[in-house]
Amino acid sequence: MDLGIKGKTAIVCGGSRGLGRGSAEKLAEAGVDIILNARSQEPLEKAASEIARKYGVKVTPVACDVTTPEGRAKLLEAAPAPDILINNAGGPPPGMWYDWGEEEWQAAIRANMLSPIHLITAVLPGMIERRWGRIVNITSGSVKAPIPVLGLSGAARSGLTGFVAGTSRQVAQYGVTINNLLPGQHETARIESLMSSAARDKGITVEEARAQAYAANPAGRFGTTEEFGAMCAFLCSQYAGYIVGQNILLDGGAINSTL
Ligand code: NAD
């Protein structure tokens, strides 16, 4: 299927691996030039050249921390007029409510709420002027159903979700859409570390923790970055202009609800 976005430019944050990488790959497959961001220069450059070689699009690596004003300025300098923005960064660490003080809260809110909001605010005027734009925020299933040990994540991302709910409805008339993708468990480095901490807590092996998590999911497995990226690319396609302010769960049916 031709997504109708060949030749457009996308900023993909946190894109050297995992869900961001999956999204960058599927956008590149659709013919989109990518400004690829992550913090560490070397793996980022490797990912950028692999994607460019595989799909024949321009991939510009921009190594910076997207949760800092300097990092975001560097990204926007590389792509002042992006057609597509994929917001993504690492998630806050798991813990208990009594572990989290002012510093931990500020870090989570900065990384998973304010940073995407600042980037959205920076690119919206240009998208509105050009009468076309697609913004996708990679958030978490913890926005829809609580994962108690991920309270920092659920709370900070809920703030972003609230912002998107209203703002997306203000900008849709200009051909600009903003939506959130809510991942459940996917095969990424992030899940490896969550599995290790679950294994430690329960006194079982990582393989046992993984088997338990698979068994608890209606799909009997974790999602792939390819599946995730394909949904992200579709939300950025010409055909997704009527999908506005939605929170799309990709979790194999793990959250048990009718709607
Ligand atoms: P990952 O650790 O595999 O990859 C994260 C990517 O973001 C890497 O490229 C990393 O270099 C980059 N990154 C991290 N912090 C950054 C920063 N401050 N600035 C720039 N780049 C940064 O993670 P993932 O599994 O792909 O998860 C992506 C997001 O989705 C995270 O916020 C995570 O909490 C959330 N999430 C993931 C899952 C899952 O199962 N993988 C489930 C729910 C939510």
What does this structure look like?
By secondary structure, this protein is α/β, with parallel strands linked by helices. Helix content is 47%, strand content 14%. The chain contains 8 helices and 7 strands, in the order βαβαβαβαβαβαααβ. Strands 3-2-1-4-5-6-7 form a 7-stranded parallel β-sheet, sandwiched between helices. The radius of gyration is 18 Å and the shape is globular. The model has no long low-confidence stretch (mean pLDDT 97). Bound molecules: nicotinamide-adenine-dinucleotide. Residues 13-20, 37-39, 65-67, 88-91, 138, 140-141, 183, 185-186, 188-191 line the site of nicotinamide-adenine-dinucleotide.
- The whole-number mean of residue pLDDT values reads 97
- CATH fold topology of the largest domain: Rossmann fold
SSE sequence, one letter per element: EHEHEHEHEHEHHHE
Tell me the strand order in the biggest sheet. 3-2-1-4-5-6-7
Determine the fraction of residues in helical runs and give it as a percent range. 40-55%
What is shown here, in short?
This protein is of the alpha/beta class and 259 residues long.
Write the topology of this structure.
Elements: E1 9-12, H1 18-29, E2 33-38, H2 41-55, E3 59-63, H3 69-78, E4 84-87, H4 102-130, E5 133-138, H5 151-171, E6 176-183, H6 189-202, H7 206-216, H8 225-235, E7 247-250
Helix pairs in contact: 1-2, 1-8, 4-5, 6-7
The structure holds nicotinamide-adenine-dinucleotide (NAD).
The site of nicotinamide-adenine-dinucleotide has 28 residues, from helix 1, strand 2 and helix 6.
Features:
2 domains; single chain; seven-stranded parallel beta sheet; binds nicotinamide-adenine-dinucleotide; 259 residues; 8 helices; Rossmann fold; 14% strand; alpha/beta
